[in-house]
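Repro case for the chain-ordering regression, as requested:
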Amino acid sequence: EAQVTQNPRYLITVTGKKLTVTCSQNMNHEYMSWYRQDPGLGLRQIYYSMNVEVTDKGDVPEGYKVSRKEKRNFPLILESPSPNQTSLYFCASTARGRYGETQYFGPGTRLLVL
Amino acid sequence: GDSVTQMEGPVTLSEEAFLTINCTYTATGYPSLFWYVQYPGEGLQLLLKATKADDKGSNKGFEATYRKETTSFHLEKGSVQVSDSAVYFCALITQGGSEKLVFGKGTKLTVNP
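-- result from build under test --
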C-alpha cells in the first residue's frame, strides 16, 4: 500500500530538548516536504527536498532542520524546541504525473512543547 | 506571492443540504488546483483536483470547476451527509517546477442529522 508514515503521532516535550520526527514514504517520490498546521493559519511549508541531499527552506523554516540522506526518509529536527513550535506537523510526498503533481500526506504528528 | 482565499467557517448544514465552499486564488503562471479534506483526528486526503482551465474535478459527490476568468475553484456537493463533516482546504501548486502547495486557511463543515 502506497503511504507516507510519520512517527511519533503524538509528542509532549519540554523547551530545549532536541527531538526528531521521522517521515518515510514507499512510493519512490523525489519531492518531499514538511508543513505545520495552526488554527486560523492553515498549512505552511517548513522545508522541502527535491531529491537526496537537496533541501531548501519553505515559508517558516526558523527553528527547524531537515536531512535527506535516503530517498524514502525525510526527518524533521527541532534542535531546541520552543513553545511556539507547538503545532500539528505533516509530512508530504509528491507524485509527478502526466496530469501534474499531487501531494500525499502523512497522518500528522501533534507536538506540544512545554 | 501566490495565495488562496477560502470562505470563513464554520459552516453548519443539515443532512441533504446543498454545499458550496468558495475558493479564489492569486498566482503567477498556471496553477493546478486542489481540494483536500481533513476528517477529525486524521491527516489530509486529496479530495479532487483540476490542472487546467475549465477542468472539473469530482470525487465522492463533490465537484469543483477551474474557472480561470474568475480565478476560482468553488467546492460543491448537492446533498451532504453527516460523514462529510470535516475541514476542507483549497490549495494550489504553481506549474513550472515548484511543488509547494499553497493552502487556504480551511473551512470547517459540520453536517447535522
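Ordering looks correct now. The radius of gyration of chain B is 14 Å.
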